[in-house]
Every structure is written in structure tokens, then in C-alpha cells.
Amino acid sequence: MTNNVLTHDVVAKEAAAMLIEESVFVKSINRGREQEFNKDKAGYKVGSQVRIKIPPIPIVTEGKEYNSDDADLNAQEETRILKVDTQKHVSLQFGAAEQTLNLTQFKERFLRPAIQSLATSIDADLLKRAIVTVNNATLIGGSEVSPLAPFGRAREQLARSLTPSAGRIALLSSEFTNGIVDSSGTLFNPNAEIAKQYKEGYVGRARGFDFVESEHIYRQENGLTTGITVSGAGQTGGNLTVGGLTNGDVIKAGQVFTLDEVEMLHPLTRKSYGKPMQFVVLEDVTAGGATATLKIYPEITPDMIGSDKQANANVSASPASGVALVFVGGDDDVIDQALCYTKDAFSAAFAPLKVLAGCEGYTFNTETMALRVQTGGNWVSDYEGTRIDVLYGFETIRGNHAARVGRID
Predict the structure, then answer these.
(1) CA 190, 194, 196 angle in degrees (round to 5)?
(2) 373 touches 386 (CB < 8 A)
(3) Whose C-alpha in 6, 27, 62, 181 is 20 to 30 A from the C-alpha of 140?
């Protein structure tokens, strides 16, 4: 007689495939770093990490003479830390009765609802963590010539950052989609290959992006945006001290601003585009007095500091003291957003968790996903439970290879 009892390994494999299918954002970003975590098959814990090196933008030296200073600058890589810092799980009914169901019955009655809840939670978490690190932003105006014109501006922003043109995605809510599709529905062109990757939610292609719907997009909530100025001249790097505050003022992660006469440089020629560099606040800040320090992206890196040329220069100059921060949106605005990006702008990794001693289970572990299904009991209380766990991390690798299109109702 054939043994039709469902086992943990079968459930884990189905759960992993379903999780990727249900997670719109997860499957559209780089997950290649999972291979580095997966070298340890015994499992990982919260806090494990890998370093991601970002190649420098090389300086081209004029003439035939070798320039060792330029060579040194060309060797200065940037580093991002991808840490697996989040564990989520969902309970699953997997007792003796459920184990006798066939796989199709079990998937539809128990597994799919559990995975849909887990996938929604993970996708929403990663999308918020991504969006608040993206500095390129544009708002939909009240009198746009074309509903898709803001996405054309987003494409310009990506182009100025030398973002690869292949595989660009615009992720937006169904409500946002309805606001940009005209009555004829002919704004978008189909892309059959991309449509295959998204069983639901694929809208079409326009302005160089494949438009895909997700209901997990984070809405930017602004804090204070007015009266904030640079406090101190000559500031560089990833921290900016600002003034004009009062005790208790809040500036929120994800707020985007520009600074007068701090212009964006072409990454290769180091010539100004004649457009202000946009910066994003990376962490919430509550002022304890008249000044505060903002953690920002990108770092303020002028072409020259004094007589010294800088590696990976991105702006024409440091901001002058007293210059106002000009934010996207106003005080306490809530901004609906679409996220435009390429796969390698962000990186996520799902690391394997080992099955605990005294439990039954299975850890599904490949280069694209790691997931554990585990059953354990409490003999004192005479109770048994099953859970599906994922351990993952996320890091923005090139935030300037993404852009936000916002709408304020």
C-alpha cells in the first residue's frame, strides 16, 4: 500500500515555492547573497551577516603618465552590510488528520492561507525598508500633460545615476494604477516574458518600466519639513547637522530634500548636471533642542575637498551654513508612492534555520529561498504545534538606482 501521509519536507518545498510566488517584491530583487549564507548548512541565527562590496567609479586620467593618486582612488570600494536580522513565522495546522490529506487539498485548505499571510508581512516589511532609503523622488503635479510623465522623470533620474536600463520595474498599488490609466487603457504595452513571472498584478510596459501591482507599498509620512537649515559649513559624509529646530520636532525616515548649490555630478565625467542632488533621511530623528544630526543617503562627497580629489564624488560642493533643506512634500504630508527600480538596487537573503532538538521538521534550503517547517510538542501540557519560519535580511545596495513617484491627495 502506498504511503500518502504528508511529510515535513514535502510541505517545506511547497511552502518555499508558494512564498516566492506570493511575494511580488521579494522575487524582483537580488537574492544572490543567499549562496554565501548557505555555505553553513547547520543553520544561522539572527545577526549573521555578509559584506557586499560595491565597485568604485573609476577616474579617467588624462595623458600618458600613470597617476598613482587616481589609481588609489579607483581602488576604494564602498561596503554594505547585509545582516539577517528578522525572523517571522506563521502557525500551521499539521496534525494527524491533515497529514492524511492529499497535497492539493492541504495546500488550498491550510498551506496557502498561511503562506499568503507570511508573504504579505515579509513583502510589506522589505518594501518599507527599501523605499525609505531611496533618494530620487518626484511628485505627480496637478496639471500633468500625461499621466505617465512622472515616470518619465523617474527614468531620467535613474539615467543620471547610470542605472542599467534592462529589467526596470515600477511597483505600485492598484489605486495608484487607476489614477494613471486613461479611459482607453492603451497607455501600457504588454510584455509576455515579464507577465509569466507574475501570475497576478502585471499591468504592462511603459516609459521603460514593467508596471506591476502590489498592495504592500509603504506610504511616506512626513514629519517637519519647514524652517530646517544646515548648521555648519563644509559638511561631508553621511551625517548632516541641521538647525532651526525646537525640542520635540520630528524628521522621519524617507523624507527627501535638496540643498541650494549642491548639484549632482555625472558619475564618470564629474561635471554638474545642473540639477540639485536629492538626499534622503535614513532614520527618524527627534530633536532635543535647536539642532540635530541627520543620517542621510547619499553621502555628501564633493569632487574636491581643498586640493584633494575625492573617490566616488557625487556633488559639486558641500552645503553652505544656513542653507535651507527643501523637502518633497510639506509638514505631516502622507505621500502615496510607486517604486521604480532595478533588481540589483536591493538585496535580500533568506538564511537556513536548523530544526531544533526534540522537534520534527525539515529545512528547505536553495540558492533562492530558505524556509523551515517544524513540529514540536509540550508533554507537560499535552500540546503539539507546527510552524513555518523564515530568517531573512535586507540591504539597499544602490539606492540611487531606484526612484519614487509620489502623489499627495
Answers:
(1) 105
(2) yes
(3) 27
What single-letter amino acid sits at 386?
Answer: T
Backbone angles phi, psi at 191, to 5 degrees: -135, 100
How far, CA to CA in Å, does 263 sit from each of 227, 321, 324? 21, 16, 14
> Looking up cell 532614520, which residue turns up?
283
pLDDT digits (tens, 9 = 90+) for 51-90: 788 888 888 888 999 988 888 888 888 888 888 899 999 9
Q: Which residues pair with 205 in a beta bridge?
A: 189, 210
Closest CA to 236 of 306, 183, 180: 306
d(CA 195, CA 314): 36
The whole-number average pLDDT for the span 189-211 is 74
- Residue environment code for 5-40, b if the CB has 16+ CB neighbours within 10 A, otherwise e: ebebeebbbbbbebbbbbbbbbbbbbbebbebbbee
CB 311 within 8 A of CB 304: no
Residue closest to 151 by CA, chosen among 389, 361, 403, 408: 403
Predicted structure pTM score: 0.88
pLDDT value for 197: 59
Q: Look at 157-161, 175-179, 361-365 and tell me which has the smallest mean pLDDT.
A: 175-179
DSSP 177: H
Residue 212: name the closest of 230, 229, 198 by CA. Answer: 198
Cell of 317: 560642493
What does the alpha-carbon distance between residue 110 and residue 393 come to, in Å, rounded to a whole number?
A: 27
Given a contact cutoff of 8 angstroms between Cβ atoms, the answer to whether 234 and 315 are in contact is: no
The answer to whether 302 touches 380, Cβ cutoff 8 Å, is: no
C-alpha cell at 235: 559638511
Q: Name the burial class of residue 42, with classes exposed (0-12), middle (13-18) and buried (19+) by CB atoms within 10 angstroms of its CB.
A: exposed
- What whole-number distance in Å separates Cα of residue 299 and Cα of residue 226? 22
CB under 8 Å to 256, separation ≥6 — which residues? Answer: 135, 137, 278, 279, 280, 281, 327, 328, 404
Sign of torsion, CA 404 55 303 269? negative
Q: How far is CA 62 from the centre of its chain?
A: 38
